[in-house]
Amino acid sequence: MKIRKLETKDIESTVELWYNTSVIAHSFIPTSYWKNNKESMAKIYLPESETFVYVENEKIVGFISMAGNYLAAIFVDKELQGKGIGKTLLNFIKQKRSNILLKVFKQNIQSIEFYKSQDFNMVYENTDKETGELEFLMEWNGIKK
């Protein structure tokens, strides 16, 4: 296991991990939405964010992307979820930040429960403009409950 900064050669496999995981975790959003955002993810979002990958046996199995104090993405290979990879990535970022904000879809209960278990608190509920789905803004402020 190794966490390292995203490199250009990692982008294609990281986008595939993001896409495959997003389709499953967000079954309430049409697959076309994720497909239509693959190019933006590869050419804009990943290159412009601070992204770290979790590598196991020379394969990227998870990643986390930050835009300032905003957690823009955290994804773990569906076959390896529940094995501590997401928590490890989040703890890695928590060591670099004193405050983290994120948005999570209200229907993504598994992720909401994960963030709550990692000391994130609900700030407010909102409607995502692109999908029309309800989402929560959650925050971690470096203080344990």
Molecular structure report:
By secondary structure, the protein is an alpha+beta fold. It has a single domain, classed as Aminopeptidase, CATH 3.40.630. It is 35% helix and 32% strand. It has a 4-stranded antiparallel β-sheet with strand order 1-2-3-4, with helices on both faces. It has a 3-stranded antiparallel β-sheet with strand order 5-7-6, covered by helices on one side. Strand 3 and strand 4 (70-76) form a beta hairpin. The protein is globular. The N and C termini lie far apart (29 Å).
Sum up the structure in keywords:
alpha+beta; Aminopeptidase; 4-stranded antiparallel sheet; 3-stranded antiparallel sheet; globular
Terminal residue distance: 29 Å
Gyration radius over CA: 14 Å
For the sheet with most strands, the description reads: 4 strands, antiparallel
- As a percent range, the share of helical residues equals 25-40%
Number of helices: 5
Instruction: Based on the coordinates given, report the CATH architecture.
Output: 3-Layer(aba) Sandwich
- Return the average pLDDT rounded to an integer: 95
| Widest sheet, order of strands | 1-2-3-4
* Residues in β-strands, percent: 25-35%
SS-based class: alpha+beta
Q: Which CATH top level class fits?
A: Alpha Beta
- Number of structurally distinct domains: 1
CATH topology: Aminopeptidase
Low-confidence stretches: none
Q: Strand-and-helix sequence, N→C?
A: EHHHEEEHEHEE
> How many runs of DSSP E, i.e. beta strands?
7
Q: Globular, elongated, flat, extended or rod-shaped: what is the shape?
A: globular
CATH H-level superfamily title: Gcn5-related N-acetyltransferase (GNAT)
